[in-house]
């Protein structure tokens, strides 16, 4: 994929570029938003920008892609590219925006590394960028074409359900009364809202109900800032959106979907609001008559904080062969455990395929425990809410 000359140059300069990626991405976003303030106002998550997590995710994906090109020159990192493409397609990213990113990213690289960016170095990293960008453009085009093209569709909230003190679910139907495209359990939609300052911010929320005709349901945790600002969109939805209000939604996207037949043993592990796609998966498995063992794992602060707990338990109970394991940091009832999720006492059937969703430290810990129990790394799938920092932590 990468020319021999460029590969040699990238290999020689990757340590210097990698060491400076934090500074490069900070300068990149600053320059791009100065030239295109509409991107920060109406496309990029302002909360993630303020917290710096988007910069970390971009740096991690660039370094991971370049490293993969060097280590596996005849392969493309489709898992990483697919996850990014689904997110971009749901946001409505367009090919011309890759040219904007290129302009400001390479200006930042030159600004940070100075004279080290010779014409040969610039050409090599330009090749890396466009290999990644063109792959994403093609994937995103295909994903959007499968869904009839990208558009924002108006949906009316027909019911708002208080799940916990900080989680609310919203059931919606399309305002135009038209048909609703099918989705796969575990996928998410982008939700675009108009905020008080005129910005139209977008967030992605997992669909928390089984794929059904005519409606969507997603669940939102109110993000309370500690060292970072409160979540703009989650607070707007909690404070202002009620039955009868209208929201703009994308079609469903996401690659955390069950790709297994009814005889494949599964483990579905979640923590906190990561329960939302897992609940949809359980509903789907119950409706489709999944026969093989299903191990359900969840961790939360307390039963009162466990969103969708009734659905979580009810759908698992409908399965032919399911075991449920809940952990709570406090107030654990009979049948649950106190503390953090620990798979040591949980039997894992050989051949199990696992799906994880929750905070990154939780997923890392569960993945390590599953591998120790003999689950193949290729059979462990995950979803990160927000910027994917998994790659950023690999080095």
Low-confidence residue ranges: 389-395
- How many runs of DSSP E, i.e. beta strands? 12
Roughly what is the average pLDDT, rounded to an integer?
A: 93
Would you tell me the structural class of the helices and strands?
Answer: alpha/beta
Radius of gyration: 22 Å
Question: Helix-strand pattern, N to C?
Answer: HHHHHHHEEEEEHEEHEHEEEHE
How much of the sequence lies in strands comes to 15-25%
* Structure annotation, total helices: 11
> Helical percent range?
40-55%
- Strand adjacency order, main sheet: 4-3-6-1-2-5
Any idea what the shape is? Answer: globular
**In this structure, how is the largest beta sheet organized?**
6 strands, antiparallel
What is the terminal-to-terminal distance? 23 Å
Characterise this structure.
The protein contains 11 helices and 12 strands. By secondary structure, it is an alpha/beta fold. A hairpin with a 4-residue loop joins strand 1 (153-162) and strand 2. The longest helix is centred in the N-terminal third of the chain and has 32 residues, at 4-35. It is globular. Mean pLDDT is 93; it is low at 389-395.
Keywords:
395 residues; six-stranded antiparallel β-sheet; 11 helices; 43% helix; disordered C terminus
């Amino acid at each position: 994929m990468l020319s021999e000359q460029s590969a040699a140059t990238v290999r020689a300069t990757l340590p210097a570029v990698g060491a400076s990626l934090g500074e490069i991405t900070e300068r990149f976003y600053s320059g791009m938003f100065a030239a295109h303030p509409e991107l920060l106002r109406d496309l990029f998550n302002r909360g993630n920008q303020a917290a710096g997590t988007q910069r970390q995710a971009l740096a991690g994906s660039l370094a991971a892609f370049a490293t993969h090109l060097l280590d596996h020159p005849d392969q493309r990192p489709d898992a990483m590219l697919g996850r990014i493409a689904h997110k971009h397609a749901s946001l409505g990213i367009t090919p011309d925006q890759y040219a904007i990113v290129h302009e400001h990213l390479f200006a930042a690289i030159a600004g940070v590394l100075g004279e080290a960016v010779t014409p040969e170095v610039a050409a090599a990293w330009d090749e890396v960028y466009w290999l990644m960008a063109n792959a994403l453009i093609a994937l995103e085009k295909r994903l959007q074409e499968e869904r009839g093209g990208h558009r924002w569709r108006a949906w009316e909230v027909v019911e708002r359900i208080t799940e916990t003190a900080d989680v609310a679910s919203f059931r919606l139907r399309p305002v135009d009364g038209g048909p609703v495209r099918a989705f796969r359990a575990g996928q998410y939609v982008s939700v675009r809202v108009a905020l008080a300052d005129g910005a139209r911010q977008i967030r992605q929320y997992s669909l928390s109900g089984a794929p059904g005709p005519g409606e969507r349901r997603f669940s939102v945790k109110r993000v309370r800032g500690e060292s970072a600002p409160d979540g703009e969109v989650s607070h707007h939805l909690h404070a202002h959106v009620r039955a009868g209000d209208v929201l703009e939604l994308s079609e469903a996207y996401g690659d955390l979907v069950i790709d297994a037949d009814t005889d494949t043993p599964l483990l579905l592990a979640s923590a906190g609001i990561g329960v939302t796609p897992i609940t949809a998966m359980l509903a789907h498995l119950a409706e489709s008559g999944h026969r093989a063992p299903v191990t359900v794992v969840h961790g939360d602060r307390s039963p009162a904080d466990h969103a969708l707990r009734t659905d979580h338990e009810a759908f698992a109970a409908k399965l032919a062969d399911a075991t449920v394991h809940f952990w709570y940091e406090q107030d654990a009832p009979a049948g649950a455990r106190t503390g953090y999720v620990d798979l040591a006492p949980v039997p894992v059937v050989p051949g199990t395929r696992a799906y994880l969703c929750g905070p990154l430290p939780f997923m890392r810990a569960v993945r390590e425990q599953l591998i120790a129990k003999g689950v193949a790394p290729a059979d462990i799938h995950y979803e990160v809410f927000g910027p994917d920092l998994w790659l950023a932590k690999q080095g």
